[in-house]
Amino acid sequence: MSKKPVRVAVTGAAGQIGYALLFRIASGEMLGKDQPVILQLLEIPDEKAQNALKGVIMELEDCAFPLLAGIEAHSDPMQAFKDTDYALLVGSRPRGPGMERAELLAINGAIFTTQGKALNAVASRNVKVLVVGNPANTNAYIAMKSAPDLPAKNFTAMLRLDHNRAASQLAAKTGKAVADIEKLTVWGNHSPTMYADYRFATIGGASVKGMINDETWNRETFLPTVGKRGAAIIAARGLSSAASAANAAIDHMRDWALGTNGKWVTMGIPSDGSYGIPKEVMFGYPVTCEGGEYKIVQGLEIDAFSQECINKTLKELTDEQDGVKHLL
Ligand code: NAD
Ligand code: LMR
Hints:
alpha/beta; six-stranded parallel sheet; three-stranded antiparallel sheet; 42% helix; binds nicotinamide-adenine-dinucleotide; binds (2S)-2-hydroxybutanedioic acid
């Protein structure tokens, strides 16, 4: 093994998603089976959380992962983010039954000011940041605005769970393999306003829209099912999604770091103005990744219904942004 270890910071490391995430990062599923990693784990200073983190670390040790080159436990982001190459910001309160994700802003928003500032001060200048904690887009926006010395493009929000949910619904509807679905995307906010868009999607080169040919299903079944999937899981489990969220985080970081070979994926990224979205709004876009950089898929036609959906999710995001001005 000749590669130099990279530093991966994970916040909320003793939480539900943390437990489904860390073992997969340590086994090489995120950055490759030849890439050693040092885990820099952050939890709140609370004794119970720190004890739980100790337990998780004992289990990580007991796996004897060949790629795990070091594990650190922290309660201070200034230490947890020191020189980190990747930062997965998971730590924050999940919603419970009957809540919307945006309601978490008041509780969670301030976490991302502190953590953005800490990343700004001590992380690698090339750090790749993924915000998972909800509401993910606006928390990522807060972190990005709190880190003026880092490139804004290094901050991203997780829309991949929505992308994967949409792919799975389309596979079930068409009876085709989920792995064969290409050119799918989810525009906008990780909230029920997200616009899962399969107008360009293909399976084995054939149009998914042509296969389904049912606009009523799109509007009345597909979009609400994908948009409200998080709430459906909370209602069923009594807890928010964890394994599927961790899986999406792995997918997001792996594709960003290692590339997508031309395949489209969805990432929440600061807008560069593409598709009329104001600059810096943290928006779900179709992207391809190569050489550690993402690139927005350009030139897609936006029809009237799609524009209406995009406007709605954008309005929600700009309202959320307005609501966090005091944190910036
Ligand atoms: P959890 O309550 O099981 O774990 C969260 C952990 O974060 C806890 O251990 C807590 O102590 C820790 N934490 C809280 N504040 C912290 C801070 N300032 N620094 C470090 N650690 C901190 O919750 P979970 O189920 O793991 O979910 C975590 C977040 O991810 C929630 O906000 C949830 O809504 C969100 N989520 C997002 C997506 C997505 O698709 N973007 C999907 C699922 C869950
Ligand atoms: C999800 O989509 O499963 C997460 O964002 C958790 C939630 O609150 O819905």
